[in-house]
Every structure is written in structure tokens, then in C-alpha cells.
């Protein structure tokens, strides 16, 4: 899958090295909940940093912002950031709510 908007999306990588690409963080959480891949077989989950195109952040280390003004490709409207400062800067531009990976998965 080609990621349409490099500010959103991410990858799930299995222990066997298979890479699943997603346009939207919401699609990643839906995929994980679907049971298509057992969570025990997942080696890593990486989210695209909203402020640095094509830079991945480990999901469990990311700072998330959710808000309708983000307009992600599949309507999840959640963005990931590498640090709190970048999230707060984006939050000043769009109305949103802070979130953590463990809250949305």
C-alpha cells in the first residue's frame, strides 16, 4: 500500500519481517483488533511523525493528538509526534486532544 499523506499512517512489522503499511493510525488499530496478525507475532508498530515526513516513531514512544481538524486520509484524525513540544505546537494550530498509544489501541 502506498501511503497517500506522509503526515499520517504507519507500519506494523511482524517478527518474520512482513511489513503492513497503513494510511491512517485508525487503520492500524483496526488491523490489530481484527486479529489478522496475533499481537504476539508483532515485532514493532511505527507511526509517521506529523511534523517530519517519512520519519517513523515507535508507537509506544509517540505523542498523539486527536482532532477533527487534522483530516487524516481515512478519517481517524489522529497524528503522531516524536516529542511533546511538536505536539503542543500543532495543538495551537488545530483543536485537538492529547492521547497516548495505549489509550487508542
TrEMBL record:
Pfam families: NosL (PF05573)
Top-level lineage group: Bacteria
Protein name: Uncharacterized protein
Organism: Niastella yeongjuensis
Amino acid at each position: 500500500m502506498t501511503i497517500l499523506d506522509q503526515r499520517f499512517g504507519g507500519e506494523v512489522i511482524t517478527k518474520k519481517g512482513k511489513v503492513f503499511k497503513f494510511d491512517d493510525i485508525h487503520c492500524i488499530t483496526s488491523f490489530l483488533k481484527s486479529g489478522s496478525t496475533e499481537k504476539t507475532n508483532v515485532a514493532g508498530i511505527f507511526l509517521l511523525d506529523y511534523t517530519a515526513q517519512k520519519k517513523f516513531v515507535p508507537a509506544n514512544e509517540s505523542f498523539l493528538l486527536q482532532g477533527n481538524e487534522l483530516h487524516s486520509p481515512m478519517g481517524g484524525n489522529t497524528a503522531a509526534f516524536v516529542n511533546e513540544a511538536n505536539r503542543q505546537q500543532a495543538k495551537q494550530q488545530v483543536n485537538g486532544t492529547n492521547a497516548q498509544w495505549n489509550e487508542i489501541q
